[in-house]
């Protein structure tokens, strides 16, 4: 026996748990299903409509649907009920259709038939039910089938169906836009109706038609005088019973009329002229004491500002907005700000007049208002008011809710960048921003700050920024809201400017620039012990991720090199070395490697190379930053992010965590920058390469990299293949010792570190050299596992890009610390041909005994004539029983004077290793300077060590 | 235009939900949750508008119920607020001092009233008396039909079954 709807609802409400609630509804649904089945089976005879519980069951289903239960099986019942001749069932049936039907429902065709009949019914109530249903569920096919009936109601129905037919048309047109043209005369006819509802729905429909198909606007514009007349009548009439709300006559109709006028008057001076008067009347006569009146004024202002209105009228509108802004009500202030946002592009001075009020809104308690105000404040910021506006925005960043922070950080950074009075000021502002909301800022804010610090004019500026940084760190680091990027910057600053930090901060510059330096902590002189302790605390800080730990390690080792030994007490050095050793047994490959290396580097034996390796990072050039910036925006685009919504941010963070290889070694911020700028490894590569190029532009790092002029020929920066070849050229040819220094320098300065370990030091060679270096050190700490050269192909995720010259094994995280290194064989000369000398090097893969990586290298042979060798192609072929997979070549050109090499890895797999040899043939192409293309093929099986 | 209208209790239970745009059922549930959480977490006395995705949420609390409407970016928020208010007023008159329980137990009546006031996301009638009369007239028709069966209803309303309409 079926219970009543109210009983069901009571029972469900009485259920103590969600589980019981579900059970009760499922039970009821099952009963209803049975009832439906019985009915369909014809067991229950009698007149349709006399079935006692149909209506009740349908209502229960709607209730179940509202409670989130699936009711799709009842859609057919809705159709049946809507076909019922008795009104109560029809009404509930149609309600069910509107609520339960999803758009994919296949019952729509059946409904179409029923709707068609009901639209032609004699009872206006039945018509109105059908129209309402159609307005809710019409599909394109239904629209085409039924629009004639709707049009009939539009033309000559009673008000009840006429108004509904008008709104139903909106849905029909959305489903089938081609119908719009046929309806135009009918729709304009609605405006002459006498009832408010019909005029209003007609106006609404016209507005929608104009929006959907702007081509109809000219055909509507002759209705403008009539619309203006209607509006005037409403404005002057007072106290019309049943229509007056808040002392305004039918605000709904007035609002619709104004919206339509707005569309019709846009870019139409004639229409605008016709509505000027009535708009003035609306603006002056509307009672603004209630919501309704303000709603009308809001529409009127928008209309005036959008059409080609008279100057006086515009001033009136702006004044109304000014009044709105001062209103006590939040709602009114919100709409005022919203409108100002719309017009700020067109009429900046008008908005600027309200600047103080808008700025005050930034401190409002309401986030909706703050958000609008932020947009406006940003739009109003220029070089004359940047100081106060940036201050306001930073203050806002402090109180902003979580989801607003990213937007406000982006705004501050962008405004500071565009209008900064000085670099120092911009750096100060960004530093404060990072200290308060660094985690919400995009990575390029951090990057920009580093650039500003490195490029800051004069040591004083750098030193005072470093002092400020250190001071902010000590103020914030213990707070739970401490921002990770601040830790990063501070660690970097301490590492770079350790010597400056031990003396007092420089005095503030005097002169007119005084005022533009934001107030902030100045800092004080710190003892080396303090600095070491601070860095030590960062290593275990709760916000410090791999990246920050990496930077901190680098900072520690730089600190030891920068502070003169006389000022460094032995116990401080020991503490620092203790900190360096923290990660010696870390599971994180990157940190472990750094820990071990830096510890070795801090020993007395390497004191003479330390200064070189840990030299300060040269200032970034604006050019390099621009290129990094480009990378960054490309990456952001790839991640689908945009300037305000920081979609890319989380990606960045993920990248950082996931790619410790690049970021852990954040020794130099370069690494971080490049990583921040990457969306994938390819870009990491390119970014790193660009950094390398930038270095080359500077020309100052070359010495540092140990190769000397002869060993490190200038990279061809203009060369298009620079992305691939430049780096290898730059770093490749160093002699063994030089190469080692290079590797270490790269590690410490991070010049190319991310992911691919871009400054590919001739594949495994660098790793070996590094090993040699560390092996020479005391204690021989160099753990072979971590420094083992690992072929690029072992790390497909790192070497995927075109620039993926063999990932410098030394810095690439190997999959597991325990993995034994692949045994590498010395480089063997295969043959010389033309200007080239080709060598091969075989490295066995420890994980897979059947495969090996063969590195082909083409050097300039000593006898070769001067001039660049271009068009170098290295290819190999293997015997049929073997397989091979190529990595991209490092380049195709050996520039003039450079020894090379151009190199390429090929991974060969020999499943029958042991019984059959690695049989490889080589094909080498090149174009010598002034010559023509030459090709050489040779069987090089003999040159490979057969193991 | 109004894209959807939700009436939710302070505990986040949906009392009425009307969609004026095509939205998949799964998406409906997600939107419902998201919007409800946003609205319920707003402290009082703030403005009644929220920016959400590309649209705006206009909400207002009446006793224990939140009336939440989603409108387009260019729509007039204040008028949307008035629309919601008009709906509440009609409910109030219809149920004679409406309370949450009225809407829980008579949700279908609330939907009928809503259909007389808002159609395809736009206001269809602003005269509350007209709305009330239309709903009452249909209620009576339905009551007569319920009492007298199909034939009686047809006679009382002038509904003439179309050939084939009844078995």
TrEMBL record, chain A:
Record's GO cellular component terms: AP-1 adaptor complex
InterPro entries the record matches: Adaptor_Complx_Large_Subunit, AP1_complex_gsu, ARM-like, ARM-type_fold, Clathrin/coatomer_adapt-like_N, Clathrin_app_Ig-like_sf, GAE_dom
The keyword Lyase appears for this protein: no
PROSITE patterns per record: GAE (PS50180)
Compartments, record wording: Endomembrane system; Golgi apparatus
Domain GAE: 823-944
GO biological process terms on file: intracellular protein transport; vesicle-mediated transport
Pfam families for the chain: Adaptin_N (PF01602)
Keywords carried by this UniProt record: Cytoplasmic vesicle, Golgi apparatus, Membrane, Protein transport, Transport
Annotated stretches, region: Disordered: 676-729
PANTHER family from the UniProt entry: ADAPTIN, ALPHA/GAMMA/EPSILON
Family according to the record: Belongs to the adaptor complexes large subunit family.
Protein's name in the database: AP-1 complex subunit gamma
Source organism (scientific name): Cafeteria roenbergensis
Lineage, highest ranks first: Eukaryota, Sar, Stramenopiles, Bigyra, Opalozoa
TrEMBL record, chain B:
Highest taxon of source: Eukaryota
Keywords tagged on the record: Cytoplasmic vesicle, Golgi apparatus, Membrane, Protein transport, Transport
Stored SUPFAM superfamilies: SNARE-like
Cited CDD domains: AP1_sigma
Any GO CC annotation of this UniProt entry: AP-1 adaptor complex
Database matches in Gene3D superfamilies: 3.30.450.60
Domain AP complex mu/sigma subunit: 1-141
UniProt-recorded Gene Ontology molecular function terms: clathrin adaptor activity
Record-given protein name: AP complex subunit sigma
Organism: Cafeteria roenbergensis (Marine flagellate)
